[in-house]
Amino acid sequence: MREISNVKLIGSVTKSRGYFCHARWKGRRRCIKCNYRMLYYFEKDKRYGCKRCRYKFNDFTGTYIGEFNYPPDIVSHLVYLFTLGVPEYRIRFYVPIGLKTIERTFKIFRQAIYDSLLDEIRKLQLSGT
Fold this sequence. Notes:
mainly alpha
């Protein structure tokens, strides 16, 4: 995947959304229920619908980013500050969201890291003593 500067993501909702969408779909959108490729798009509420099972979803349904109720550029800014190790109580001066929301977001980031590492350990399938 092409490297993109985090500063460019922070400044633009469109670029952040495009980056996260590409990271999730990798150019191949599919139904998250039945894995069918034929989808239709609802302009009004920016969701997709599956032609087979009629399930409706958006780009971030079923992901950690889908749990956030603020724009993707703020999420990318929080990811950047999280990786730098900036404490939650200091971040509230850089982003327009509250301290409780920042703490919840960092908790979700930690959970995502934990889940990813747990999946890697399961793939190793350790055997023996």
